[in-house]
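retry 2 of 3: previous attempt timed out while embedding adenosine monophosphate. Reduced batch size to 1 and resubmitted. Inputs unchanged:
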Amino acid sequence: MKLIILGEPGAGKGTQAEILSQKFNIPTISTGEIIRNAIRQGTALGNEAKQYIDRGLLVPDSVVIDIIKDRLHEDDCKNGFILDGFPRTVPQADALTKMGITIDKVLSLEVPEEKIIQRISGRRQCNECGATYHVIYKPPKQENKCDVCGGELIMRKDDAPETVKNRLRVYHEQTEPLKDYYKNKDLLVVAYGQEEVKDTTKEVFKALGVEDYDYN
Ligand code: AMP
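retry 2 succeeded.
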């Protein structure tokens, strides 16, 4: 399965992508994660991207298209993949087509905007390995400590309220048009985010037409 997940920042794309990735045994590719890793490692790509990401702006198309091109050529993508956070603009979507990649479905994960702000304020990420948490919905076992590596949990810089406003504006202006883009190609399905992760998963699987899943 080759799947794209669209949705505003904080809609829960990453969480659902992780669940789908386990179910279908295919990798999740998050351009945001790849960029944040590059920033943590201080690479040239990371240094270039930081000035955009910290302001809630999109990294230039050419940069992310190169990232995706390399990543999709890796062996683990042979049986499919889930794209979380790519494409985010029409030129990026066109670039996928030009790479000869046929997408099976595009899932739009929709959540009311007031919920988004509330959710983002509780998000935390490990400063060292990048594992993600939420103070209410997915708390770590020990406060502020990563379950995976023991690293410190911090709030993403671009999750600050002013930056989130920018990211939402950018989503509406540059990414939301992709819903029509994929609707016209008959690929779009919609799922509505719920209060509980497992209820959202039910909606996601229903939208994708998957029936045999144990939600517990
Ligand atoms: P995310 O983790 O998907 O919310 O992405 C965090 C940030 O990374 C975004 O606000 C952008 O600055 C950058 N980014 C991630 N994916 C893309 C993309 N496909 N195109 C441009 N910028 C991106």
